[in-house]
Amino acid sequence: MAYYKSSIIVFSVLLALGCSSEQPKEAAQPDTYCLEESFKKSLDFFVATRQQITERVHLTGTVEANRDNVVVFKSLFSGIVANTYFSLGQHVKKGQILADISSVEYGSLNAELQSLESQIKVAQTRLHAVKIMFTDGLASEKELNEAQSELDILHAQKSKVSGTRNLYSASNTKDVFQIKAPASGIVTLKNIAPGMQITADDDDALFTISNLDNIWVMANVYASNLQTITEGMDVEIRTTSYPDEIFTGKISVLSQTLDESAKVLKARIVLKNTDLKFKPGMLTDITAIKRHNEEAVSIPASELIFSDNENYVVVYHDDCNMEVRKVDVMASNNETLFIREGLKENEKVISKNQLLIFNRINH
Fold first, then answer.
1. Are 237 and 271 in contact (CB under 8 A)?
2. For residue 131, which of 4, 100, 117, 230 sits 20 to 30 Å off, Cα-Cα?
3. Using CA atoms, how far apart are residues 291 and 252, in angstroms rounded to an integer?
């Protein structure tokens, strides 16, 4: 019994000592993340600014000759091509001889012209005689008028035949018709060669001459862009041939009918073709710029972090005070984001290696 009481006393003392030695624990302090100087050098910072909201829509397109400055030549007569004096892609001047054509019509027109000239001489002699007879009272006024009318008709027929010869550019020295350039420009199509037979009823063009001082860029507008693309929009045009140059223009015409083959609408952009850099058939990348009548806080698109279907940025206050901020993007283009909520003007945002800091803060 005495042993039992002593054991209880010892246990009670030990329990008291244990309780008296227990100290209250301090609350856990948050882990503050600070930028190291070496890592900070790898970051870029951007101050959010307020600017006009613009959207940039990417389109593709093709260069075409300005159809208002294209001359398509079809033959007015039949014959055989004797010679050609031009090549595809060559610059020609208005009136320049491009080809010689041997034609039976040349002989027919010459024969008709010679016949008319002979008839005119006879009619002139007859008119002269009738005038003398009319003066002497031996011919009536009716006979005089008939003689004059006959001569006038023959002159009219001669003028018609001569006009046809001139229209066909007949050459008296070569006995051929000559095809002359109807306008100055670049030969963009050629379907004529020596020995080739041509006919007046052929609908195919022998050649096409295009003035390329101004060209058309025809942009493809898909259904998804119809609400954005409008006439008068500014555009930027790039080509693989001149990767470091940006050409600017405006959409002058937006077609209202669908292109059946490509299933797109066509938007026409008229450009001044300085130094003839643009060639028909050249492919282009087009950026259409839509400007809104309002402003918003903007940041570069590269600063955005997309996580769990939300958009975030890392806002920098100082080296030990950075925060992850969810933002609501109201509009964007290839380079810029426009923020509706979550960021204020003049706040500083980390724009390079921000994902590393995002992961560190949200660990």
1. yes
2. 117
3. 17
pLDDT tens-digit map of 212-234 = 999 999 999 988 888 889 999 99
CB half-sphere exposure, 242, CA atoms < 13 A: 13
- C-alpha torsion sign, points 278, 282, 285, 288: positive
Range of the domain at 320: 37-51+295-361
230-248: pLDDT as tens digits:
999 999 999 999 999 999 9
User: Which of 170, 188, 209 is the last residue before a domain boundary?
Assistant: 209
The residue written with tokens 């008068």 in the block is: 232
How many domains are there within the chain? 3
Cα–Cα separations (whole angstroms), residue 244 to 116, 238, 241: 67, 8, 9
Kindly state the DSSP code that residue 24 receives in the 8-state scheme. Answer: P
Put simply, whether the predicted model's pTM sits higher than 0.70 gets the answer no
Q: Residues 71, 184: contact at Cβ < 8 Å?
A: no
Burial class (CB in 10 A: 0-12, 13-18, 19+), 332: middle
273 & 222 share domain: yes
**Rounded to an integer, what distance in angstroms lies between the CA atom of residue 218 and that of residue 64?**
7
